[in-house]
Amino acid sequence: MGNSSKSFTFETNLNSYLLKNNFIILIILLSIITGFSSCNTVKYVSENENLLTKNIILVNDKKNVDDEITDYVVQRPNSLVLGVPFPLHFYNIGNKNFESDYDQWKIDNPKAYNFTTKVFSEKQTRGLHNFKYNTHKWWLNNGEEPVIFDSKKATQTVDNFMQHYHNEGYFNVKAYYDIAYLKNKKAAVTYYVNTDKPYTLDTITINIESKVLDSIYLSQKEASFIKKGEKFKYSLFINEQNRITNLFRNSGIYHFNKNAILVDADTSNYKSNIDLIINDSIANIPYKIQKIKKINIYTDFAYNTKDNPIQDSLNYKGYFFLTQNKLKYNPKLLLDAVFIEPNDIYKDETRELTRKNLRRLNNFRTVEIKYNELENDFLEASIYLTPLKKYSIGFSSELTHSNIRQLGISGKLSFLNRNIFKGSEILKFSVQGSFLDSKDAADSEKLLNAWEIGGDVSLELPRILLPFKANKIIPKSMSPKTIFTVGTSLQKNIGLDKQKFTGIIDYTWESTTTKKHSFQLLNAQFIKNLNIDSYFNIYNSEFEEIQSIASTYFNEDISTSDVVDFINLNIDSNFESSNPTEFTIAQNIKNRYNIITEDVLIPSATYTFTYNNSENYKDTDFSFFRARFVSSGNLTSLLATKKDENGIKTLFNTQIAQYVRTDFEYKKFWNLSFENVLAFRSFLGIAFPYNNSSTIPFSRSYFIGGPNDLRAWKIYDLGPGSTQSGLEFNVGNLKFISSLEYRFKIINSVKGALFVDAGNIWDISNSAVTDPEAKFNGFNSLKDIAIGSGFGIRYDLSFILLRLDLGFKTYEPYLESNKWFQHVNFKNNVYNFGISYPF
């Protein structure tokens, strides 16, 4: 549990000398920053030039706080990192006059040059020269050259301000700039903007000559963006132009385009009279509503064989399927992704919806839709589909590392079959295996002392597959999908050698472009432990706790196979009355043993709602919200008839897990400036066992710590609550975590981050053996929230981002006193290496 092939966590192990000199390290870091800040920033600024250090924008005598206004500034100072222009300093390290300086040095120092050429060969001397030249060139290419104040760019900025506010209805706006020359060839620019009063919309006249267009417009007139009394904004007219264009083009007007819309504005006394004119024709051809008479679908189109004759054709409900070979797609099923219909009017939205849904099938390399005009104003639609290869095979391998698995070599072989049942289905089969170096293995001294093997099969259908028709509830426009997955995996000589079987039936759909839904009708997992007898060899710290109790209070020396029997026989109510702390420790260990070693069947149903208004993967200003609800074991427990000796219902001689779990996650990103982003993430999760279960299965419990979580602690190291058990795996059924991260560019592809993480896990089972410090007791437990802070370095390769974060324990709730800043040093920090951002 908690292992990842893409990220790992490890703690520093510096020598004792370094640990005793954290203060010296801090002084060195501060000295570097101070040295940079005191460097000569005007090294490459000529005498008649000035380094631009600041832009100030005053709008109506108030300092501007609108990021949109800042975007109109043409020239900006050199970028800062924590207030220091590091990219400029990097640039200044290089010598852009290296060649001329080198030639001059040879002239000024002939003896030194001759001595060098005599000691070294000519080739070695040239190699040394090239090395120095390339080093300086690297600093110059990766740094940022000084931004020299340019009056033309300042004037352009003023013009941009004027144009912007003019578009916002401030027709009397005035703007200018003033430059302040500072010491040491530096300058600051202040931009002054006086907007005056905005103009408002007064009389609005609509002039549409075409009766066809006029009738369509009147049906949606109330949706107009241009209304009397509104502030004059150029964006309103753009929005209205787009609205009208979309309205007409989705009402059968195939030839309409936005250039047919003209706006005339008469302004006076801070009011604007608007005359909106829509021409009645294009190229002297009157606008008409056009219908689609014929639809052709070419399912095996290829550009290099486009002139080959059609060999197979089929007319299905007015759709003509044409192929150069045998038709390989079921027309009825393929039409689930087609929204253009015969005898329907032309609509842009059905054209785009068809293109989008055909692409999401992942069966076609290209999708192209064209229209031809026929007689009597009819249209012919042609859909050209270029299929992907039916079969594909892939292989991948990777090295992995985690705090549990020291080294892993894994490989995965996958096979994919497209359109297996002629309905654009995708069948995937994969088998994966790993050789691991695990500290949990029975023979932990050997390298690669354990292995894993697994396989899974999935079938993806681009429709909702249910015994009844679900089209009215989830129409095909919502991009429905059904995925069946069956998988198994086996671990050997690692941990408890778990064997797992998984079966999933998942339905997904998109109600809007920002809202997605997933309903897993079944997510069943069967977990069987094959090596329970090794438990206390693997979780050795728990064995040492019991061994200490046995030797201290009972003068016994027990083995790892005797732990559970020893607790059952000796750790009773009599022992509790005299040794309550040790009693709790022993019962906790026994309880955790029962949780981790249990064979369990988890038949759950899950619904997940996701809201994400991100426009693309490069978007840095958006919101994300996800809510998940899980219910496990209700129907299965109801139908099961067998019980074990403890009265627990079982299936296949295995306990049925019964619980409910709810998670909420919210993320918000703010784009502060160019490549400077503030990111916030918060997560709250709670799980309740009931009826057939007294605990949450270990695999479905909450843990905290790690590279994508609370980064100052390793995975499973913290909690629950303010306990400090020292156990290998700490889990709970209530979790809260919140993170705030400031991301910034350092130089080129190298980026940095400052972060603060806060969170913890708690137990809410009300078990009598649970440590009171591990339980959640309302607002009083908020003092148990641990806080970690740190910084990170990221290297952006465009297609992948490599990340290294250093987390420092800032607030430790389990300490008796002085919980703040007790271990903020390089002895207790945690390194987290990962792929991509933590959230």
UniProtKB/TrEMBL annotation:
It holds the Pfam family Omp85. It is found in: Membrane. The keyword Metal-binding does not apply. Its main location: membrane. The keyword Membrane applies. The chain crosses the membrane at residues 21-38. Keywords: Cell outer membrane, Membrane, Signal, Transmembrane, Transmembrane helix. PANTHER family: SORTING AND ASSEMBLY MACHINERY SAMM50 PROTEIN FAMILY MEMBER, TRANSLOCATION AND ASSEMBLY MODULE SUBUNIT TAMA. This is Surface antigen.
